[in-house]
Amino acid sequence: MATIVLATFGSLGDLHPKIALGLELKGRGHKVTIAAMEYYREKIGMIGLGFAPMAPHLDPNDRDMAAEMMDAKKGTEAILRDIIMPSLHQMYIDLTAAVDGADMLISGEIVYAVRSVVEKTGIQWVSTSLAPGAIMSDYDPFVPPLAPWYDKLHGWPAWFHNSFFALMRWTIRDWYEPYKKFRRELGLSEDHDPIFSGRFSELLHLMLFSKVIGAPQPDWTKSFVQPGFCFYDGQNDDGKMPPELSTFLDAGEPPIVFTLGSAAVLDPRNFFEQSAAAAKKLGRRAVLLYGSYSEPPKGLTAEIVGFEYAPYSLVFPRAACIVHQGGVGTTAQVLRAGVPQLFMPYGHDQPDNAARCRRLGVAEIISRDDYGPEKAAELLTKLLSIKTYAERAAEVGAVVRSEGGVQVAANEIEAVL
Q: Do 51 and 40 contact (CB within 8 A), yes or no?
């Protein structure tokens, strides 16, 4: 039996894959602790995994902060410069305490103190990525939130994308100063890039996403292994299926499901009211999953119902189509369900996930500013009436369901151990 620490920062889309992996490793006899922000202590305790607090600690009820973090123009900068970089010292202290006596540290994307902890403690380190865009491959380029048009250049040669990403790195060069100072104070070399080239463990880097949206590329390194998605949606803690929703699903044709995941839902604007209007315009049954931080949206009827939460794995396979923000956790669940999807991306990896699914032939995209009853109804009509969307989604779903991501990932981790 090994003692393993999984470190993650972010929304449920970041936490849930680590929980899935933690539960699998625990089931194999290992002692597992998740290091995360304090807000998740109770949730993690409910599923029987160990918990260690790791800065930064955010307040999910802070709507202004949520809106800033999800902003397409400034969201990534706000998270990295205003939240992660100022928390590096405390993150390092917390992680060092969490791995005391542990055999392995498995980290998520923006746990930027991890390399320093590894260098200081010598602990075995496995890194992970949840979305293909995070790899920044020159052969399968990322679509930036500020440049959704970049998807049109996807087929351009690798040298072009390499030059574009080099320019992008140059424009954010001043973001690194707090990290360099942090490293110097620890007596470590400041010549390390936690945002791009230095994020991957040379021992093992797990690509926790399906090959359907991100296949292996020539610039992937030898430590990269692709198990596939790791699924968890709260059913082992407080994520229960509302009985009324089960009754609704049994009572008629598959509905359209509207959701904004676990982070974008904190800044919904009037998405749910407009979605209810779009469903009414189409004469379709609908489910609105509006989150626990909001009141039930206007426009609900006997055929257009709303709930705070429901496990995606139990709802999405019974839907006709899913409308969502494009977070990789939600995207993965829709792909596994094998139904068409309409993306309304905010920022971060969401425009890239949306572009990949559109290229797959399973999705369409609408901008947040363009989203309204008329345009949403128009695109939903297209997704629901053209059979190739559903046929392709079913094919993709079969591939995703066959990959066994969490089991393969655990096998790779045990091979290292």
A: yes
In the predicted structure, residue 38 carries a pLDDT above the cut 90: yes
| Amino acid at residue number 344 | M
The burial of 369, by beta-carbon neighbours within 10 Å (0-12 exposed, 13-18 middle, 19 or more buried), is given as: exposed
Q: How far apart are CA 228 and CA 1, in angstroms?
A: 25
Tens-digit pLDDT profile for residues 238-277: 778 999 999 999 999 999 999 998 888 888 899 999 999 9
- Using only C-alpha atoms, what is the Rg of the chain? 21
Burial track 101-122 (b if 16+ CB lie within 10 A, e otherwise)? ebbbbbbbbbbbbbbbbbbeee
Contact 236, 46 (CB under 8 A): yes
Characterise 340 by phi-psi region: left (phi > 0), alpha (psi -120 to 50), beta (else).
beta
Rounded distance between C-alpha atoms, residue 44 and residue 198, angstroms: 29
Picking from 356, 377, 376, 360, the residue whose alpha carbon sits closest to that of residue 368 is: 376
**Which tokens go with 158?**
């690798």
